[in-house]
From TrEMBL:
This is Xylulose kinase. The record marks D8 as: Important for activity. The lineage of its organism: Bacteria, Bacillati, Actinomycetota, Actinomycetes, Propionibacteriales. Residues 242-423 form the Carbohydrate kinase FGGY C-terminal domain. Residues 4-209 form the Carbohydrate kinase FGGY N-terminal domain. InterPro entries: ATPase_NBD, Carb_kinase_FGGY, Carb_kinase_FGGY_CS, FGGY_C, FGGY_Carb_Kinase, FGGY_N, Xylulokinase. Keywords: ATP-binding, Carbohydrate metabolism, Kinase, Nucleotide-binding, Transferase, Xylose metabolism.
Length: 468
């Protein structure tokens, strides 16, 4: 039995799965945490990867490996291949001003959609490069190559020698803001608009191509961004919308044609199979529930029980979840809010219900934005850490008004990377068929009143206070 390994270097942790290359059956796995913060030195990802590989029993017996990772993070390397400064992550909002400048300079949102299929917001790499140019010109000048978290880890696994050997894939490249899913090529003019000068960029490999290998000789796949990897790991097809509730909240769908959304809500990314992945991402997802559990002094399991003990609509209490500012809608300076507090509903159960409903309402807006582009939605596939919560599964079905399909709890980004590695081994036109196990459907009565209440209050939030 040939084994393949898939890696998910995500915001909060690094996960490694080792699977049977033919069937996708999970053989063993391991994980290790990442540090907190929206600015992280890539060495911390490398250390966590080593620990996760060890916890997964090593990679000596695997025939191929691929790396999935959090998208958009800015990794700058100097001529010698050393990291210039800690990476700015996808959820770092300091480049919000830079995003507005870039939109203006190219001629507005439509010009960006026509060029690269997205409208810049603080998450995208090109805006972080502009921030670097404006705020740390020495670091910008020293930058000789720019890559993404998964590109850097792939390169390090291969020994990390010459900058010319950096590789990436079209899925993650499409989240930079300087690679076009329309022409399948870099827009170096946009890279230069951001950073101020041209640099080495990773070579973009095809979905089943390998450009590098482990010292053992096992080929490394191109890897991809975590959302493209999740879609591959789930075997998502047309009609499926994948909703991921991890650090980010994501709604995305596999599409045969590239999409463009001039409102900027939907990013027209590429996927990991040669197709496209229209995607909406929010900054406030599983951590809203972490915060609610912390405020109530309960575990996630207790938070779920509490939320399910209160009635739908939480007695009119509505939580706006913009705890970290927000990316979609684009409100980097917003804060969260709780509306409709009353004496009789001021209980842990009502607050827990409002937290889950508010977080899901933010994602329901994301699903609506994907739907508004004409994407068919036949089922919702729910994944990410918070899909482990029964309250999340039930309330997602109620608020979205759709049945929610949840595969057995697992690491679907890492599984997608492993499936890509298996695809590298076969070299076939399509990836190997890996059946999904333990799929459970949750279907509860729709609660449209919850979204109506949320829509009435979601604009009412206070700005972030000035730093003291
Ligand atoms: N049972 C649960 N209920 C709600 N949230 C959970 C549960 N288990 C894990 N989480 C949350 O899921 C998040 C991690 O999810 P994950 O998809 O691994 O995130 P990421 O990929 O962004 O690192 C954490 O914020 C964690 O607290
Ligand atoms: O920015 C995006 C997508 O555009 C995020 O989805 C990141 O890719 C991080 O994902 P998680 O670590 O939350 O899975």
């Amino acid at each position: 039995m040939a084994l393949v390994a898939g890696i998910d270097s995500s915001t909060q942790s690094c996960k490694v799965v080792v699977c049977d290359a033919e069937t996708g059956a999970l053989v063993r796995s391991g994980s290790a945490p990442h540090p907190e913060g929206t600015e992280v030195h890539p060495d911390a990802w490398w250390e966590a990867l080593q620990a996760a590989i060890a916890a997964a029993g090593g990679l000596d017996d695997v025939a191929a490996v691929a790396v999935g990772g959090q998208q958009h993070g800015m990794v700058c390397l100097d001529e010698a291949g050393e990291v210039v400064r800690p990476a700015l992550l996808w959820n770092d909002t300091r480049s919000a001003r830079a995003a507005l400048d870039l939109i203006d300079e190219l001629g507005g949102p439509q010009a960006w959609v026509d060029a690269v299929g997205l409208v810049p917001v603080a998450s995208f790499t090109v805006t972080k490069l502009r921030w670097l140019r404006d705020h740390e010109p020495d670091s910008a000048r020293r930058t000789a190559a720019v890559c993404l978290p998964h590109d850097w880890l792939t390169w390090k696994l291969a020994g990390g020698t010459s900058l010319d050997t950096l590789v990436t894939d079209r899925g993650d490249a499409s989240g930079t803001g300087y690679w076009s899913p329309l022409t399948e090529d870099y827009r170096r003019d946009l890279l230069e608009l951001g950073l101020g000068h041209d640099v080495v960029l990773p070579r973009v490999l095809g979905p089943a191509e390998s450009g590098l290998s482990l010292p053992s000789g096992a080929p490394l796949g191109a890897g991809t961004g975590d959302n493209a990897a999740a879609a591959l790991g789930l075997g998502a097809v047309s009609g499926d919308v994948v909703v991921s509730i991890g650090t980010s909240g994501v709604a995305c769908a596999v599409a045969d044609q590239p999409v463009g959304d001039v409102t900027g809500a939907v990013a027209g990314f590429a996927d990991a199979t040669g197709r496209y992945l229209p995607l909406v991402a929010t900054l406030n997802a599983a951590r809203v529930l972490d915060a609610a559990a912390r405020m109530l002094g309960v575990t996630h399991a207790e938070l779920s029980d509490l939320a399910l003990a209160a009635p739908a609509g939480a007695g009119g209490m509505a939580l706006v979840p913009y705890l970290e500012g927000e990316r979609t809608p684009n409100k980097p300076e917003a804060t969260g809010a709780i509306h409709g507090l009353r004496l009789e509903t001021s209980t842990p159960a009502y607050l827990a219900r409002a937290a889950v409903e508010g977080m899901i309402c933010g994602l329901a807006d994301a699903v609506d934005a994907v739907r508004a582009l004409g994407t068919p939605i036949e089922r919702i596939i729910l994944v990410g850490g918070a899909a482990r919560s029964a309250a999340v599964r039930e309330i997602a079905s109620a608020v979205l008004g759709l049945p929610v399909t949840v595969p057995e709890p697992g690491e679907y980004v890492a599984r997608g990377a492993a499936r890509q590695a298996a695809w590298v081994l076969t070299g076939a036109a399509e990836p190997p068929a890996w059946p999904l196990e333990g799929v459970v459907e949750t279907r509860v009565d729709p609660t449209p009143q919850v979204r109506e209440r949320y829509a009435a209050v979601r604009e009412m939030t206070a700005p972030r206070p000035e730093p003291a």
